[in-house]
Write a structure and sequence with these properties.
It contains six helices and three strands; from the N terminus they run ααβααββαα. The protein has helices at about 1-40, 45-55, 65-70, 75-85, 105-125, 130-145, and strands at about 60, 90-95, 100-105. Pfam families: MarR (PF01047).
Length: about 150
Amino acid sequence: MKIRTTENSTKNLSETAIQLWFQLSRAYHLQLKNYSQFLKKWNFTISQFELLVKVGENEHISQKQLAEMMFFTKGNITQLIIKMEKEGYLTREQNWKTKYILLTAKGRAVYEQMIPEQRQFFLKRFKGLSIKEQKQFIQLMEKLDNQ
């Protein structure tokens, strides 16, 4: 009898884990879709906006640091920077072997306009959760990240 209980417990845990995976995946994709829609106002992709934010928060950041922070390859970050540079949002400075990325005046203006709107967007997205629930959710996500 104990074996069945253990098997049932394992089966229930497995089913719960699968349900959790699908719910988390669904929520993630829904949030990405909504965030992408929000960013269309400025004609930005999520990657472009996150790059703009990272440079805005870390003035004079190296291209290598950006790639590491955003989990991009050197090639991917280079292509993204080139595109943002052509659109007038970023500029590059080279100090010997290190390339530093900075916001242009246009990039700074867009960054300063978008950040408050982004905060409002996130407030609306999570208004169904109390602050306590949001903090619990963060803790659970961090726990998953550290596995």
